[in-house]
Specification:
Order of helices and strands: EEEEEEEEEEEE
Strand content: over 45%
Strand order of the largest sheet: 2-8-7-4-5
Distance between the termini: 107 Å
Number of helices: 0
Shape: elongated
Largest sheet: 5 strands, mixed
Length: 174
């Protein structure tokens, strides 16, 4: 009969093809979160021999994020990044690109979208609409009553729209 022979098979990662950013799609303004960076080859496998620097950016934020994440062989192509904080509510793009140490490789770039919700209400912002207007030296009165717009804002000046509370304002003119 035949005797089966077993040989260890070792798969070497291919060229760096993409950087995967794994992050929760919903975040809150001003609250730090973490994300995971995975470097993959063209077959989609984790590039366990990746050595280089991955730059993390969120350029559209009120306080733009810039972070360098250095990968060594011990990281096996994946790393968790702590303490990322976004301050501007709405849709934010987190970008990642790399500077590989292997001279034969070219850099790759990718991005992930995150929806940032405003944080807890912190203040009211009042804006007054003019009741009177001076035109060519003559005083023109508006037929409309004076309107005051009130916005609820968080600590980073984001408008808080989904407030489930009643807001009462009492004003007196003196």
């Amino acid at each position: 009969g035949m005797v089966p022979l077993f040989f260890p098979l070792r798969v070497h990662p291919g060229e760096t093809d993409r950087i995967e950013i794994i992050v929760a799609s919903e975040q809150t303004a001003g609250v730090p979160f973490h994300l995971q960076i995975i470097v993959r080859d063209e077959a989609g496998h984790i590039k366990t021999d990746y050595v280089g620097t991955v730059h993390i950016r969120a350029p559209e934020d009120r306080e733009p994020v810039e972070r360098e994440v250095i990968f060594g062989l011990e990281d096996q192509g994946q790393k968790e990044v702590q303490g990322i904080t976004l301050h501007t509510s709405g849709e934010q793009r987190i970008e990642a690109d790399d500077e590989p140490l292997q001279p034969a490789e070219t850099g790759v770039r990718s991005s992930a979208l995150v929806r940032v919700a405003p944080s807890l209400p912190r203040a009211l912002r009042f804006s007054r609409q003019p009741k009177t207007l001076v035109l060519a030296g003559a005083l023109v009165r508006s037929a409309q009553e004076e309107a005051i717009a009130v916005e609820v804002i968080d600590a980073w000046e984001n408008r808080v729209d989904n407030l489930a509370a009643e807001l009462r304002i009492t004003m007196s003119l003196q």
